[in-house]
Automatic annotation (TrEMBL):
It comes from the Bacteria. One of its GO terms (molecular function) is DNA binding. InterPro entries: Transposase_17_sf. One of its GO terms (biological process) is DNA transposition. This is Transposase.
């Protein structure tokens, strides 16, 4: 897979590292990172367009008409 996207190093090069979320600011930062990933990588134009698993609808609440 790495060769297809021109990555250097091993695909699973780093080991897993659990990082504690110590406060609300850190939690919001991680949530923003996860929700923006598809947009950042150019896979979708908006986070709401992500076709995979997401918690965005629950975070936004009921749809308004």
């Amino acid at each position: 897979m790495g060769k297809l996207v021109d990555w250097s190093g091993g695909f699973w090069e780093r080991r897993y590292s659990a990082e504690p979320v110590l406060d609300d600011t850190a939690l919001v930062g991680r949530l923003r990172y996860v929700l923006a990933h598809g947009v950042k990588e150019g896979l979708v134009e908006r986070s709401a367009e992500w076709p995979g698993l997401t918690c965005l609808p629950q975070l936004l609440g009921p749809a308004r008409k």
